[in-house]
Amino acid sequence: MPIPRLLSLTACVAVAALLATSAAQAADLSHRDDLSPRDRARVSRVLAPPTDWSAPEAFEAMAGGATTSSKRVNANAFSFPSANLSFEDQQRFALGNGLFRKFWVSSPSSTQASDGLGPLYNARSCQGCHLKDGRGHPPRTGEEPVSLFLRLSVPAATAEEQARLDSHEALVLPEPTYGTQFQTFAVTGLPAEGKLAVSYQEREVELGDGTRVSLRVPSYMISELAYGPLSDKVMISPRVAPQMIGLGLLEAIHPGDIEAQADPRDADGDGISGRVSRVRDPNTGEMVIGRFGWKASEPTVRSQSAGAFAGDIGISTPDRPQPFGDCMPAQTACFSMPTGEQANLGESEAPDPVMELVDFYSRNLAVPRRRDVGDAQVLAGKKLFSDFGCAACHRPKYVTTRTADIEAHRFQLIWPYSDLLLHDMGEGLADNRPAGTASGREWRTPPLWGVGLTQTVSGQETYLHDGRARTLEEAILWHGGEGEASRAAYAAAEARDREALIRFLRSL
Are 135 and 454 in contact (CB under 8 A)? Predict the structure, then answer.
């Protein structure tokens, strides 16, 4: 567009500089094949870091863009649908909600559309792990471990097994007797794999101003093994169920935006060397970006859901036709139990449209509107979040692709606070169990949206992959490896700055 003749020379220079800057930023988005050149310039300006920390950015409160829920904040804050769904899609969401919450029962049963549980399992419903669509937690005194379980695997013992891992045909190799997941429940007539208990030792750390904070170090005890001993080479990784909000929006982030952040060899020397997780698409067999799960081992929400149906509940789906769940050949009694597959209902225990509806529900759980974005302490904490280097991994914002599968997710400015990359988080958080391209010290950066409502939704605070951290401060102080510099900056900060950072996190 031509510059009006009445503009001063200074104004002309300023406009030219702005256009040049926009062009340079747009060039950085050349991978965005869904955007026009004009869109790229717009998106570049929107995604630029703030220069004024005294006020919130435009639309910052709308963490999920137009999908953001503005409903009353209470224990159901994570359970509302994307705000911009059509009436028809709201109906699909409601049907998926019912399936997500429903309890599966063992076979045979009079409720034929709900049987097929197990034979071995960790929970009877999706909601059983994702409590109110929020995060799970380690068992409290007297509780059974439902929303925390153990992943199992063994290292390759032969060249053939190593080739399966190297070719990404398999993410991990199952423990020979107990498979890839330790199940603490079983249907009537079959013993569960065993019992799991968690204990903690307190470890005190001192901050720069002398404040002492106690971190709890978990230990996991497996007992009453029903099918023989575990391999002496078994690798064990505890996991709590992550929160469910915003998953469809994460799926709608352009793959080029994720790849553009990767710096596996730390070429810029900032100490951050995020890597893209690569996994095989279960439908096409092609190598694609892993976005979901603690180690970014799943490429889509649907593949994550199908894996949970099979591993957590023992329910077969069109994607994972495993009516016996995670049963292993050594567990012969497991394969003698009846399944819930019925030809008149479909070729699996949860055939479509069950999987379609659960997938749609899972992709449309809305991110709640942020609170207190203009509060002075929150804004101060936001700047510290940047100054301490936290935003290097917890990337604040994206604009989703115009070609997203769900119309409501297209071209939305979202604020997940994650780069979806794998990072070495140090020895303290290492599970020493590789999975796919993720090493035993690497974890995907978890999105932070909704983290400030953890207590409200779950009734308690537990953070990190195994729920060991009881506060956001503890979670920060567990950071090591690529997160060590940020942890050290927080630990050395004055109390008022630490309080401001935590207040910012609680606003998310």
Answer: yes
